[in-house]
Amino acid sequence: MLAPNDRSTFLSTLPACQSDRTAALAIVGISTALFALAVPFAGMPLARVPAFVASYQSALVVSDTITAVLLLSQFAVLRTRALLMLATGYLFTAAAAIVHALTFPGLFAPAGLLGAGPQTTVWLYMIWHGGFPLCVLAYAWAKGAEGGVRIAGPVRHAVLGIVLGVVATMAVFTWIVTVQHDLLPVLLREGRYTTTMMVVVSFVWSLSFAALVLLWFRKPHSVIDVWLMVVMCAWLFDIALSAIVNVARFDLGFYAGRIYGLFAASFVLAVLLIENVRLQAQTMDLLGMLRRQSASERDLHGERERLFSAVVESSNDAIITKTLDGTITAWNRAAERVFGFSAKEAVGKPIDIIMPEGRREEMEEILARTRNGEVIDQFEAVRVNKNGQPLDVVLSLFPLRSADGKIIGASKIARDITERKRTQAALNREVEERQRIFETSQDLILVTDGYGNFVQVSPSVKDILGFSPEDMIGHTATEFIHPDDLEKTREEMRAARRGQTKRSFEARYPHRDGHDVTLNWLGTWSEPVKRHFFIGRDLTEKQAAEAQFRQAQKMDAIGQLTGGVAHDFNNVLTVITGTIGILSEAVADQPDLAAITRLIDDAAERGAQLTRHLLAFARKQPLQPREVDPNALVVEAAKLLHPTLGEQITITPQLTEDAWPAMVDPSQLTTAILNLALNARDAMPDGGTLVLETRNIFLDEGYASMNPDIIAGNYVMIAVSDTGTGIPAALIERVFDPFFTTKEVGKGTGLGLSMVFGFVKQSGGHVKIYSEEGHGTSVKIYLPRSTGVQETPLEALRNVPIEGGDEKILIVEDDALVRQYVVTQIRSLGYNALEAANAAEALTLIDGNADIDLLFTDVIMPGAMNGRQLADEAARRRPALKTLFTSGYTENAIVHHGRLDSGVLLLAKPYRKSELAGMLRIALAS
């Protein structure tokens, strides 16, 4: 189907095809042949037939006028200057033919009308045959792609202008050839052509030839160009026959030339008429096609309307139409189901029936936006059903337009998302819960893909392995699993993928600082998401607790064995000591035998002393606990120790003024202090300092969890510290074993510390030993506080509300279990905590974190640098960094030993949370 005003349908723009050129050449060829035959006979006189002239001129006027009208019709559409020039030429020839006929002698009057003279018609003939080629030249010059330059302004003005112009021009020429006839040169004398005539006609013929040549070279040729060239050929033959080769009027050339002129005028007209018929036929075909298409579209529209109605009615979404004032005009079945109103109840009612109370402004805003032509898409809102229950819906509103484009209403699509939102909220809550579990889990949670690459890693990995989740995500698990446990882990993953879910196994992962961490893994495989899920529990604390438990079991077993041996040995000694007295009396008069009995009696006494130590270790000695003032007991013990230890050892009591009374056997406690003091003396052969301290202590749940043999509560601490040689770290765990000693043979039984251990445990207390080889040892005895004692002012001070903070604290502790405990406590106070196992790790963290506010470090640490040296190096790198020390040694002992300067901040282990919180604030404020 052609577009309206398609310029390719007009002859002036339609490219000429080969058939057009062939037809034109055929006509030119025939015309040329006929011209050639007529030329020899052009001067043959023939009868005068004035009617021929009248008929010829009339036909010419009609033909040229029709041609001009058809060309102007095309001009009205194309508006090209070239078409206007060509139409002007045809109008000019029509006007010239009329004047020529009126002035032709003998046609309407003997001498012609309008005052014509003998030269009038011949001059009009020259003007006529010269004016048309000029218009064709103008056309050829102005034509171009799609007709050339177009004329602006109304078409009627241009048409009226050329009509008036042609009339005015012909009026001027008529006036010249009639009124001014005598001024014109003579072209025709006595029926013969003059020389002037030959010059004028040659010029006119040259103009026609020039028009033909210019048309030929102005390519590409349109259909009308081809036929204009045929016209110009016939026009040349016309001039040649009727004005050059003939002799006078009414000879053969006269008649033949005018016949050529008539044909010339008819070629373009015929082509235009044929083209109009073709276009009319095409128009009829197109009209028929449009009618068929219209009928098809009507059927299609009806079918689409039926389908649309079916879709609307079958839609799961409520589809509602309403006017611009909110009156409902359509209500589908889904709307009935969603809102509860039937179509009969809803149509004609205001949309307010589904609006909640207080939402009138929202509806007015939506209607206003619809009036402005706005489309509202995916707008969440609340509506109510027939029962008044609120519904969550997603609305899409589109303006409804009339045929002329005017907005007359709105179409609304409402989707009920109440259940979806409820489900989504539940899902979001579940996802949030799982995310919180994932983020707060103390266990390590790992998610890997089917190839073993980490997809998700819980933040707990920082505390357990020292890595951040970003360090592991995207990497394969083989980079982090201990090589010896890699194959076992792979087997467990393969088993999980075979459907054996919830695999439980142990595997080691190297910590960032180099030590191995054993994790108990629970793993499963999810086929839908192609993921492995693992939960790993750090067994470090469990293993440490198991080690402590095994140690306790070992000591218990040794105690049971020792107690049994001591009991049986005591029975033997009872017999010996009982009978040796009888024997001693019997041999009193025999000095030699009496000396032997005394030796036996001394040996029995030493054996009894040994059994008492063994029973004390086995916690089976008879105790007589009572309320004891620890300060008084320590002072008395110090008096006993002065002569025993010698002058080279300085005894320094450090007693808490308001020390709680303890429930303990005083004699056994004195013996324990003396045993510890004697061990300290042996560790200081060249002299030194012995510090005896008392202190009130609260052992909290955290400390109790790391020492399963103790119950959280209030205790009285008695510490015996020396500046001796210390105990090697490898031997610390064995010092309480019976008969274990590092002294030379004959210098100790190895029962002193084991007796202290047994006595304290039997008294319901706790004993802890701290030692550093080359620096000294501190043994702390924790005895239960006597019940029924009022709270002291110091204790009340310690129970004030705990104050935390948000600063960043670096914890340095070599014992993993203690470090984890401290980190947990500090984070519970609100602080940001970093952790390191040694000085090297701590310095790395200090260099990488400029915002660390406090260094909290143990004093005694293995490695090339202890806590004091670490603090000095940290102060050199970060002068503003504050430091708080902690140690198993007491404050008095460690300062006295010279490891810390007097006045530094030290928090002695163990400590309660309130003491930790207080010291942190003091350190941060210092």
Automatic annotation (TrEMBL):
SMART domains: HATPase_c, HisKA, PAC, PAS, REC. The chain crosses the membrane at residues 21-43, 49-71, 83-102, 122-142, 154-177, 197-217, 226-248, 254-274. Residues 377-429 form the PAC domain. InterPro entries: CheY-like_superfamily, HATPase_C_sf, HATPase_dom, His_kinase_dom, HisK_dim/P_dom, HisK_dim/P_sf, MASE4, PAC. The keyword Lipid metabolism does not apply. Residues 304-374, 430-500 form the PAS domain. Residues 564-787 form the Histidine kinase domain. Its EC number is 2.7.13.3. It catalyses: ATP + protein L-histidine = ADP + protein N-phospho-L-histidine. This is histidine kinase. It comes from Bradyrhizobium iriomotense.
